[in-house]
């Protein structure tokens, strides 16, 4: 990290350099005070130019006007060119390099051209004045061009710095957006895993509690479902953590969890196991498949799986144990249609799990990623229906979108 020392809001090195330049001009005037054409009056003009040069970086236009005015006094007094007139060239250089607009540099160049002519006319011992004017013009023009080149380079460097700062801000904004998107994805996955498993476990635990004395065998079955569901939820949580962790073996527990999002990705082949778990939880599920299942992108498969999982979880919580649920998958050449409907005639839960209100929202977010549509609402005959339509990729290419 570089620490820049400042004085009066300006870099200390720049202030020191300007003081040295101003002091050099003042010393030139003092050294020739005895021999100067204007005497001590010329020394005062020199002192005014030297003081003005102290502000040549912060106020280059004003400094140039002040130095030009003092030079005009020198012309009117007919002192001729003097050694400290180097201050005029320094002011010209400063306004070209540090001026806010190039127009100021052009005006300063015009004024310098007029000053070249006046200085050449007043130069003593000159036979052909225009030769001296040509010499003065070459020196002044060289100073102007050097300053213009430095100005162009300085502005180019400033533009590169500004562009780098803009890119840095854009990268930070993109990083914040990526973090927010990842948090949303994690929250959605956690809801899908935890809400489904907890709903099933609560239903079975309540059932086991009430059937423990009446039907011990059924109570044991319910407890087994609770244990199996908990193990499945733990496995999915480990999968989710594996997706979010860095690749490679971990520190000291001997576990190696892949960071590849495709690692242990849920697929449609696992839908029968999902339906079986909900059947064990007390739903009467009738599933139908229409059409030939195509090769779906992994992300689309996961979306179909999560939609069915969330719809069955809602049916278990709201329709209750014993409800009849129809799960229909229809495959066409253009889309996959998922329809889950229940009759709403199940046995209400004794202590239903509180709803976070994120189920339908999460489904809608997943479906929107693939330009699909979701409709959900009560049925006229009773119960609830969820219908999702997911268009298939037209080119059949495998997607790599992380759900």
From TrEMBL:
<keyword id="KW-0418">Kinase</keyword>
<dbReference type="Pfam" id="PF23539">
    <property type="entry name" value="DUF7134"/>
</dbReference>
<dbReference type="InterPro" id="IPR011712">
    <property type="entry name" value="Sig_transdc_His_kin_sub3_dim/P"/>
</dbReference>
<feature type="domain" description="Histidine kinase/HSP90-like ATPase">
    <location>
        <begin position="299"/>
        <end position="394"/>
    </location>
</feature>
<keyword id="KW-0067">ATP-binding</keyword>
<dbReference type="InterPro" id="IPR055558">
    <property type="entry name" value="DUF7134"/>
</dbReference>
<dbReference type="InterPro" id="IPR036890">
    <property type="entry name" value="HATPase_C_sf"/>
</dbReference>
<keyword id="KW-0812">Transmembrane</keyword>
<dbReference type="GO" id="GO:0000155">
    <property type="term" value="F:phosphorelay sensor kinase activity"/>
</dbReference>
<dbReference type="GO" id="GO:0016020">
    <property type="term" value="C:membrane"/>
</dbReference>
<protein>
    <recommendedName>
        <fullName>histidine kinase</fullName>
        <ecNumber>2.7.13.3</ecNumber>
    </recommendedName>
</protein>
<dbReference type="Pfam" id="PF02518">
    <property type="entry name" value="HATPase_c"/>
</dbReference>
<feature type="transmembrane region" description="Helical">
    <location>
        <begin position="60"/>
        <end position="76"/>
    </location>
</feature>
<dbReference type="GO" id="GO:0005524">
    <property type="term" value="F:ATP binding"/>
</dbReference>
<keyword id="KW-1133">Transmembrane helix</keyword>
<feature type="transmembrane region" description="Helical">
    <location>
        <begin position="37"/>
        <end position="55"/>
    </location>
</feature>
<dbReference type="InterPro" id="IPR050482">
    <property type="entry name" value="Sensor_HK_TwoCompSys"/>
</dbReference>
<feature type="transmembrane region" description="Helical">
    <location>
        <begin position="12"/>
        <end position="31"/>
    </location>
</feature>
<keyword id="KW-0808">Transferase</keyword>
<keyword id="KW-0472">Membrane</keyword>
<dbReference type="InterPro" id="IPR003594">
    <property type="entry name" value="HATPase_dom"/>
</dbReference>
<keyword id="KW-0547">Nucleotide-binding</keyword>
<feature type="transmembrane region" description="Helical">
    <location>
        <begin position="127"/>
        <end position="150"/>
    </location>
</feature>
<dbReference type="Pfam" id="PF07730">
    <property type="entry name" value="HisKA_3"/>
</dbReference>
<keyword id="KW-0902">Two-component regulatory system</keyword>
<keyword id="KW-0597">Phosphoprotein</keyword>
<dbReference type="GO" id="GO:0046983">
    <property type="term" value="F:protein dimerization activity"/>
</dbReference>
<feature type="transmembrane region" description="Helical">
    <location>
        <begin position="105"/>
        <end position="121"/>
    </location>
</feature>
């Amino acid at each position: 990290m570089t620490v820049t020392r400042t004085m009066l809001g300006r870099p200390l090195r720049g202030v020191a350099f300007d003081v040295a330049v101003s002091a050099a001009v003042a010393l030139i005037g003092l050294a020739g005070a005895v021999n100067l054409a204007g005497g001590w009056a010329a020394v005062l003009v020199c002192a005014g130019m030297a003081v003005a040069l102290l502000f040549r970086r912060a106020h280059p236009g004003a400094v140039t006007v002040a130095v030009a005015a003092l030079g005009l006094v020198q012309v009117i007094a007919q002192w001729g060119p003097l050694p400290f007139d180097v201050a005029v060239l320094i002011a010209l250089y400063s306004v070209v390099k540090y001026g806010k607009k190039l127009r100021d540099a052009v005006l300063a160049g015009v004024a310098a051209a007029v000053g070249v002519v006046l200085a050449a006319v007043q130069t003593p011992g000159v036979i052909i004045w225009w030769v001296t004017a040509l010499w003065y013009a070459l020196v002044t023009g060289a100073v102007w061009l050097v300053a213009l080149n430095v100005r162009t380079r300085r502005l180019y460097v400033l533009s590169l710095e500004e562009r780098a700062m803009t890119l840095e801000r854009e990268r930070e904004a993109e990083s914040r957006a990526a973090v927010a998107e990842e948090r949303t994805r994690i929250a959605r996955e956690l809801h899908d895993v935890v809400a489904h498993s907890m709903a099933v476990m609560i239903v079975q635990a309540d059932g086991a509690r009430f059937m423990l004395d009446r039907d011990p065998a059924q109570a044991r079955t319910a407890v087994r479902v609770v244990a199996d569901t908990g193990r499945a939820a733990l496995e999915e949580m480990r999968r989710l953590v594996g997706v979010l962790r860095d690749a490679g073996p971990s520190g000291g527990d001997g576990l190696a969890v892949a960071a590849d999002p495709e690692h242990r990705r849920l697929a449609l082949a696992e839908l029968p196991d999902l339906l079986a778990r909900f059947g064990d939880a007390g739903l009467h599920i009738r599933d139908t498949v229409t059409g030939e299942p195509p090769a779906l992108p992994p992300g689309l498969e996961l979306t179909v799986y999560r939609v069915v999982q969330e719809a069955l979880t809602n049916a278990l919580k709201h329709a209750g144990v014993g409800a009849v649920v129809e799960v229909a998958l229809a495959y066409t050449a253009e889309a996959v249609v998922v329809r889950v409907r229940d009759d709403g005639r199940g046995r209400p839960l004794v202590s239903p799990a509180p709803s976070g209100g994120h189920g339908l929202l999460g489904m809608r977010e997943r479906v929107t990623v693939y330009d699909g549509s979701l409709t959900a609402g009560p049925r006229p005959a009773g119960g609830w229906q969820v219908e999702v339509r997911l268009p298939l990729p037209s080119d059949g290419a495998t997607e790599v979108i992380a759900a």
